[in-house]
Amino acid sequence: MPVIRCTTKLLAAIDDLPVATPADASSPIGDWYGHLFTVERRKAILFISERTLFVCLALGVTKSDYRRIVPFFLDLLTRTLGQEGFNEEKTDWLLSLHKNMAIGRTHNRSTLGSLNNRIGDAKYLIEYDGGLDHCDVPALVHRLNETPMGPIKYSNGLVQMKRMAAIGMGTRD
Predict the structure, then answer these.
(1) Cβ neighbour number for residue 38 with a 10 Å cutoff
(2) CATH classification at residue 68
(3) pLDDT tens sequence for the chain (173 residues)
């Protein structure tokens, strides 16, 4: 069972309460870390996969959008996978790993560091593109997912997520 590991700020903003989860409860792609932050006085949420560092980003959200964080996350993940070129079969397989998701507190400092780096990158790229009104969100997410990261040996989140999907489904990509 995968866990959405929320920062304190995100936990305070949602209705779901964290539950104790066993250490071996995660899925093959690991848990997801999420954080609520602001960009140009608008709320945004960024999720990052613990093992692949694949990013899902929602900009300009309201509390009613993310009050129930699991359905919000699953919808965002579905849209992000589609925008990143995952076919329906791989998307369905990845979503099948996320049944009965739990909510928990963050605990992996390396993943938290990667999450914070991606938030900084997102804020910079939004400003570089001329602000939220001129930002192409799918292109921004693609840029974040194509940026190499040290914790995954300078690979990127998109390559790692595609690799995990191919391994999990027993196919070659």
Answers:
(1) 9
(2) 3.30.420.10
(3) 789 999 999 999 998 777 765 555 557 788 999 999 999 999 999 999 999 999 999 999 999 999 999 999 999 999 999 999 999 999 999 999 988 888 999 989 999 999 999 999 999 999 999 999 999 999 999 999 999 999 999 999 999 999 999 888 776 55
Dihedral angle, C-alpha 86, 89, 90, 92, nearest 10 °: 110
Q: Which residue has the tokens 């979503």?
A: 95
Split into its structural domains, the chain has a count of 1
Residues spanned by the domain of 135: 3-169
- Sorted by sequence, the CB contacts under 8 Å of residue 77 that are 6+ apart come out as 47, 56, 94, 95, 98
Task: Let me know: does 98 contact 173? Beta carbons within 8 Å.
Answer: no
* Phi, psi for 48 (deg, rounded to 5): -135, 135
In the chain, at which residue ranges do the beta strands (DSSP E only) sit?
A: 3-6, 32-39, 42-49, 55-61, 102-105
Strands (E) across 1-136 are located at 3-6, 32-39, 42-49, 55-61, 102-105
